[in-house]
Specification:
177 residues, mainly alpha, membrane
C-alpha cells in the first residue's frame, strides 16, 4: 500500500522514513518541519536588529548585515528544500544551522550593549542540530556555540580579555591538541 495515501478509518498513514538519509524512523523532524526552526531564528534576529536600532545602535554595519544575511540565506534555502522535499542524502542540510552558529555571534557583537540575551538565539540552531542530524554535526555545533564568548576577541584580532573569553580560548586550544 502506498505510504502517503490515507489509511483505513480516515486517518493518514504513517510515512516510512527509514530510507531518508539522516532522518531516523519516527523522527518528528523532517524537511517539511525544519523550516520552522530557521524561520523562528530569522524572526528573532530581525527582532534584535529592530530593537537595537530603535535604541540607537547602528545595526547596519557591514558585519551585522553579513550576520543577518547568513540567517536570511539559510531561511531561503531551507524553505526551497521544504518545497522540493529531497528524500535521500540530506545530511548536508546541517550546513544551514551550522552557518547560523557563525552568523549569530556577528549580530550579537553588534547588539550586545543594547539588547540582552542575544546569544540565546543559539538555541534555535542547536535544537535543530540535536533533533535532526548525526553526532558529528551536533559536536561541531557545540564547539561553534562554545566559541561565542571568544568571538569579540577573534574579530578584534586581540587576546581574550575577560574570563568567558579565556574559558572559550582554553577549551578551544585544548581541543586542538
Amino acid at each position: 500500500m502506498d505510504q502517503t495515501t490515507r489509511g483505513g478509518h480516515g486517518r493518514p498513514a504513517v510515512i516510512d522514513t527509514r530510507s531518508r538519509g539522516h532522518e531516523a524512523a519516527g523522527s518528528p523532524v523532517t524537511l517539511r518541519t525544519q523550516p520552522w526552526t530557521q524561520l523562528a531564528l530569522l524572526a528573532a534576529a530581525v527582532g534584535v536588529v529592530v530593537a537595537a536600532h530603535a535604541f540607537g545602535a547602528d545595526m547596519f554595519t557591514s558585519s551585522a548585515v553579513i550576520g543577518l544575511g547568513i540567517i536570511v540565506g539559510g531561511a531561503v534555502v531551507i524553505v526551497i528544500l521544504a518545497r522540493i522535499r529531497p528524500r535521500e542524502h540530506t545530511a548536508w542540510v546541517a550546513v544551514i544551522p551550522l552557518s547560523d552558529l557563525v552568523g549569530i555571534p556577528i549580530i550579537r557583537n553588534a547588539a550586545v550593549e543594547l539588547v540582552d540575551g542575544v546569544g540565546f538565539m543559539m538555541v534555535f540552531p542547536l535544537v535543530w542540530l540535536g533533533a535532526a542530524f548525526p553526532l558529528p554535526a551536533i559536536a561541531l555545533g557545540i564547539v561553534l556555540a562554545g566559541a561565542i564568548p571568544l568571538s569579540p576577541a577573534l574579530i578584534a584580532g586581540r587576546a581574550p580579555g575577560s574570563a568567558p573569553e579565556w574559558i572559550a580560548f582554553g577549551s578551544s586550544s585544548r581541543s586542538q591538541r
